[in-house]
Amino acid sequence: MTRTLEQTIIAMRSALAEGRRPEATADELYCFAVQPVLGNPHASENALESILDSLSSEDIPTLDAALEKLRSGESAWLGFKIVTDPTIACDSDDTEVVGIIGKGKGSADALPGIFVATDDNQIIFSRPYSDRDSKQMLDITRGPHMHNEQYEGVAWLSIPLKQSGIVFIFGASEISHYLEKMAWDCDFPTVVVDYDEKYLNEKRQPLSRRILVESFEDLSGVPVTKDDYVLVLTRGHMYDPEVLAYGILCGARYVGMMGCKDKNDKVFELAKRRGVTDEQLAATYTPIGLKFGAKTPAELALCIVAELVQVRSGKTSKA
């Protein structure tokens, strides 16, 4: 069974403390997994193995910092330095645009490693690093592999330590396919829920955990928490009242539903029969997503994920 990120970091720390090589899979340190970095020439299981080979007891403080940030909910990232070409990692050209000119201004060394970077520009790393390294390390706070193509010889990946709530996509419709990929690209883990295996399967939702239910009438086995996001997207809106009420009664951080006003008013009335109040319904994001003229499934997925990012950042709230 795949361990959680916290369990993986604890196991890695224990191994180093006992003088053993730490073990972790690409699924556990998921910035190395195939799907999230598809097409990234720098991310591979070989790159992960090289990093694990390089770690020693000197990296324990970095793992301790990662655990501290993870548990506190602070905005921070566990970063990975990947050496793609040791011969030029420390000696690659720059331009006047960035301001570090000439050779000899590259990475401090040609060794892989792990580090922690925070939103307030703190770096925890077991070795000295160059000015260029620090710029690249802090760049990971803007995305898992920001500016990896900028310099030859070294690449960077990261995992956010401030964990996003899970996005529960209720309804394995066409839009769920687009939503899944966009959500993962924005560091939202996804779960897709449906009652029909023709729509809910690995081919259609390769990145998500998939929960097959008997029907949308009984969702008690779907573990939605107050940190999570509920997207009401049942096929043809057939079971929107059941899902809408479930998301609200679970106390999810975000409950959004697609549909026109007339349809949604009808769903609201049906949801109230399940114990939902007018005040709770008014706090939902209905209709779902930011409004910028989206029509196609891909465009609608984009407007939904944009709203999720906005809510996560605290820029807007219906609470």
Describe the protein:
The protein is α/β, with parallel strands linked by helices. It has two domains: 5-160, no CATH class; 167-312, NAD(P)-binding Rossmann-like Domain (Rossmann fold, 3-Layer(aba) Sandwich). The chain has helices spanning 5-17, 45-54, 60-72, 131-139, 174-185, 240-249, 261-272, 278-282, 297-312; strands at 76-83, 113-118, 123-125, 154-160, 167-170, 190-194, 209-212, 229-232, 254-257. The strands form two sheets. It has a five-stranded parallel sheet, with helices on both faces. A four-stranded antiparallel sheet has the order 3-2-1-4, sandwiched between helices. Helix 1 (5-17) packs antiparallel against helix 3 (60-72) and helix 5 runs parallel beside helix 9. The protein is elongated. The mean pLDDT is 87.
Question: What descriptors fit this protein?
Answer:
319 residues, alpha/beta, Rossmann fold, 2 domains, five-stranded parallel beta sheet, four-stranded antiparallel beta sheet, 9 strands, elongated
Radius of gyration: 22 Å
How are the strands ordered across the major sheet?
A: 7-6-5-8-9
User: What do the pLDDT scores average to?
Assistant: 87
Helical segment count: 9
Order of helices and strands: HHHEEEHEEHEEEHEHHH
Oligomer: single chain
Strand content: 5-15%
